[in-house]
Amino acid sequence: QVQLVQYGGGLVQAGGSLRPSCEAAGNTFGTNARCWYRRAPGKERELVAIVRADGSPVYAASVKGRFTISTYSTKNTLYLQMNSLKPEDTDVYFCNVVIQSTVSWGQGTQVTVSS
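Predicted structure:
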């Protein structure tokens, strides 16, 4: 199973930017999709962005135009460029990799946006 380790996140003022990353260790051959989710305590998990095997990204309406999902395949790294951050983006963000029928999760990283 692939191990995912997340980096980045933190505290930023509204309008600022962050770029959390997610490094995969292990065999990622056959990856179907790489995703970013977010979930605040007491809230439903929300799919933020997904990039499929063909490279096509899809974004949640709440982040479209502000967030960009990308991969650096040589390093097996997934990024989420977060621009024009809003207080409502405050959440714990998780990366996720789907390889055939196996789903792997990162440990989560806190993003806090102050108004």
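Summary: The chain has no helices and eleven strands.
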